[in-house]
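Deliverable D4.2, example record:
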Amino acid sequence: MKITDIECHTLLAPNYNQTFTSSAQDSFVVIVRTDEGLFGVGESDVNPWIARACLEARGTHTMSLCAKDILIGADPMDIEGLWRRIYIGTAMHGRRGAFIHALGAVEMALWDLKGKALGKPVHALLGSNPRDKVLPYASLQPNGSSFEAYRDSLVAWAIRAKELGFKAVKAEVTMNGPYAHSGLNESYDRHTQVVAAVRKAIGPDIDLMVDVQYMWPDADTALRTIKDWGEFNLFFLETPIWVDDINGMAKLHNEAPMPIAFGEWQATRHEFVELIDHGKIDFAQPDVGRVGGLIEAKAVCDYARDRGRRIVPHCWKTGISISATAHLAFVTPHCPYIEFLPPELSEDTLRRELVSQELTMKNGEIPLPTSPGLGIELNWDALKRFAA
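Output generated by the structure prediction step:
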């Protein structure tokens, strides 16, 4: 079997809002096709126009080749060998960042294809003795252009998530900083008020994570606010300071009253070494697409395990990425939750419409899938309608 084509699809929801900091409004989807009619589907959380250029850009010498050219004619079953060939052959312009994020979509598609070819679900190809279930947490990004509207939207969605059976929720509490929602510029004290309102609404038995999306400029500023957040019993606090402030991460690990989580933007296993060994993060959050695919994500999981850390993967995307993330979690015992963007609690059109069949939650759990590959079906009409 040989690869005959790499289709790069840049997708954009027609109702996207450029004032939102939500990458679920667009998507980069790759379809790997073969001479035997089999195909695999992958996705990554990356600027889709940049990602397409990363894979299709021409090259003129052995260390800056065209990734698509390397793939055409190759054996799709040799996933690790192909990834390595591309990583080395594009080293001068690749290695990290957007290129690795784009390559993650290809690698994901290759696993989907391989699973279909062998008649096995992806988790069976990644490891043995999978768990019979994984737990998703509801990832909630509220709406509203005022403090009150934002708070009330988040509280309402958290209550709805509890009603749907979720055992954990993550509140995006971001009314300041680089991810500030709808131009809000609220004080840090008001963020405390929102966290308190969500905890009160869901009660003490639902695990609560909080993502402030790099809001505080440094660890000392963050600690002045979160020193009193111990009463909320947070499962973790995600990305409280800038991603490159490794010393600040270590300070938060030592002094914050809750575990600290980072890793959504990292590319390859190598970038997690610094976060885990020097930043001392408690939870590593590889995003399957962004980190470079399932092989790199599993390497991060193994590295974290060996150092006593836990895994909660990042996944703010459609059912394609959610499925890949779940398959990883089934063979990762130290992964207590995966991020799950519930279509019922999302206004993102692509999340609701791009996939017609995907892994679903039952009684707060995702049961072990048995379908070959990722176990998803694209909505081909949506793929055409949302083409950018």
